[in-house]
Amino acid sequence: MKDGHKDVFKKCADFTEAQNVKDMGLYPYFRSIEGIYENQVVVGGRRKIMIGSNNYLGLAHDERVLEASQAAVRKYGAGCTGSRFLNGTMKIHEQLEEEIATFTQKEACIVFSTGFFVNQGVLATLLEGDDYILCDRENHASILDGCRFSAAKTVPFAHNNPEALRRRLSRLPAEGGKLVIVDGVFSMSGDLVDLPAMNKVAKEFGARIYVDEAHSLGVFGPKGEGVVHHFGLNDETDLVMGTFSKSLGSMGGYIAGPKYVVEYLKHKARCFMFTAALAPAVAGGVLRALQIMQEEPERMANLWKNAKKMQEGFKAHGFKIGTTASPIIPLLIGSEMKAFVFSQKLFEAGIFTTPAVFPAVRYGEAIVRTSYMATHTDEELDYVLDTCGRIGKELGIFDDAAYTGDKRKGSSGYDFTVPNESRDAAVREDAGVLAQ
Ligand SMILES: Cc1ncc(COP(=O)(O)O)c(C=O)c1O
């Protein structure tokens, strides 16, 4: 670089956190999967029980889904080579949109290439400079990015707390447009949104409400329609988004709501208009998965049987699992270092899962995020429970501050000895946003 000029690559050269963890032999990310056998994956030539996916209904490898994908490839080709707006709209996209609108009982729907784009694109398009987005503090990153991309002011409120929402709303001017956005099931904690209370507060202050069903589609609702149907609040909920990347085993996402809003988004949302359309193989597979989900309700029943077994089982082994009410079960570890070691030991024992550390979770509250599928067997689940319990004890997790509340004892979560400027910066940034 020329002297006296800032090098935009400098931060990359200075980034050592990942390498430090690799050097310790504890790096848990980007593990390369060589093969998949239903609930088990092969990594480094060895089978591991998968408890780190979002394949809730076990449809990602269903033969019927794969066949439908292949048929769509043969009919429409490998890709659309363009956006939906121009040359990328195919009959199969329209069919998928009609099916989702019918299934979710919304007037209309459009399908985006990823769920991330749905949140980013819809928020950026709908909200204007004098508007406010009321955003749960634990909403997904795609929602936070949508808030950043939109011209509106973001007003975060305490997680799943309708009273905090009320306080925030009560201070906003009546003339500013307001949208409350919440995850149906929160992706890290597994918490179920208190939609009846949120909805009531939103209505009181003339706010629209938008629910992200990424982790609730196929999990909640009489037929797996999501939390909005679980609570019987479909008509009261203005917009519902969902993803195809979890229960439906593929990728992509949708937004469903009033026809005039969908029509507007179709012509204005940049994440929809300026990116290639969902590949035909994906649309074909998702359509079939959506049908199977409705034809085989036993999948959702099994998912819940497994989820309940694991929630109870982990508690019996002494784990804190927070306030989860879903098949996402976070195991509280506290210390980031211990979360990495715990994950690595599980991996060596034949279990695939990953730790979540700051900023994915609050600092000092590292977890190992586990999640369950309809297709897991009792034998697999018993092995997971016993192994987690044994390794938890070996690592002294239950004697740590996260469990005892004693800040002087064990690790507080601040023992991870890698440079943490970026973490500090993020904490400051977060505090800044909150202070607005
Ligand atoms: C709550 C939530 N919303 C949106 C998304 C983004 O969806 P996708 O991965 O399909 O792009 C995710 C993905 O992890 C999520 O957990």
Descriptive key words:
alpha/beta; 436 residues; 7-stranded mixed sheet; 4-stranded mixed sheet; Aspartate Aminotransferase, domain 2; Aspartate Aminotransferase, domain 1; 18 helices; 2 domains; binds pyridoxal-5'-phosphate
The backbone outline, from C-alpha atoms, is globular
Q: Cα-atom Rg, whole angstroms?
A: 22 Å
Question: Which strand order does the major sheet show?
Answer: 4-10-9-8-7-5-6
pLDDT under 50 segments (min length 5)?
Answer: 409-436
Query: Average pLDDT value?
Result: 92
Strand element count: 14
The distinct ligands, each listed once, are: pyridoxal-5'-phosphate
Q: Per DSSP, what share of the residues sits in E-state strands of 2 or more residues?
A: 15-25%
CATH topology of the largest domain: Aspartate Aminotransferase, domain 2
CATH architectural grouping of the largest domain = 3-Layer(aba) Sandwich
**CATH superfamily annotation of the largest domain:** Type I PLP-dependent aspartate aminotransferase-like (Major domain)
* Structure annotation, total helices: 18
Largest sheet: 7 strands, mixed
Brief summary:
The chain has 436 residues and is of the alpha/beta class.
Architecture overview:
There is one protein chain. The chain is of the alpha/beta class and 436 residues long. The protein folds into two domains: 10-50 and 300-430, Aspartate Aminotransferase, domain 1; 63-295, Type I PLP-dependent aspartate aminotransferase-like (Major domain) (Aspartate Aminotransferase, domain 2, 3-Layer(aba) Sandwich). It has 18 helices and 14 strands. The chain has helices at 10-14, 17-23, 63-76, 84-88, 91-104, 115-126, 141-149, 162-170, 195-204, 227-230, 259-268, 270-273, 280-295, 298-316, 336-348, 378-394, 401-404, 421-435; strands at 35-37, 40-43, 46-50, 108-112, 132-136, 153-157, 178-183, 208-212, 239-243, 253-257, 328-334, 351-352, 354-356, 366-371. Pyridoxal-5'-phosphate binds next to helix 6.
